Amino acid sequence: MQVTMTVNGVEVTREVEPRRLLVHFIREDLRLTGTHWGCDTSNCGVCVVLVDGTPVKSCTMLAASAGGHEVRTVEGLEQSGKLDPIQDAFMEKHGLQCGFCTPGMMLTSRALLDANPDPSEDEIREAISGQICRCTGYSTIVRSVRWAAEQEQKARDGESAAGSTADEGTHETADHETAGATA
Q1: What are the pLDDT digits (tens) for 94-137?
Q2: Could you report the per-residue pLDDT of 51-70, keeping only the tens digit for each?
Q3: Which helix (H) or strand (E) covers residue 3, if one does?
Q4: Are residues 109 and 183 in the same domain?
Q5: How many domains in the chain?
Q6: Which of 76, 99, 117 is the last residue of a domain?
Q7: What are phi and psi of 106, to 5 degrees?
């Protein structure tokens, strides 16, 4: 059967067997090997991708079921040569060791921050609870997600400040032009 979906912003169409799992479609058909394949029983979470912005264990979803949807893999986090803040955070705060769970953890974390820009430690732990990391003990992953949230907040605050300054300048120009018109 033919399936069409958007993967990391690019529409793809392929012939697939109806029973082909999304994880195999992504890794083998699209050659996007950042999505890992672990337990094949949905227990470990290393195969997590985002489907329409929601974390999904791709070892439990048929590729055909993703037809018409937007799929984002770890390769899609980086945009225009710039790493996503969650990728920077995992490097900065050592949220990875062996790296096997990292793609799924980063995608789950990205979805969390998209839904909740300021999650508590408990909310982060709950969000990643469906994934297993055998190396870090989770504390560095939680620190990484908090750091990313803080960096994104600083960026938003900077944009707000820049927007306010630009708006103030516009008002000053408008006031000056009005004053000149009445003189």
Answers
A1: 998 888 899 999 999 999 999 999 999 999 999 999 999 888 77
A2: 999 999 999 999 999 999 99
A3: strand 2-7
A4: yes
A5: 2
A6: 76
A7: -65, -40
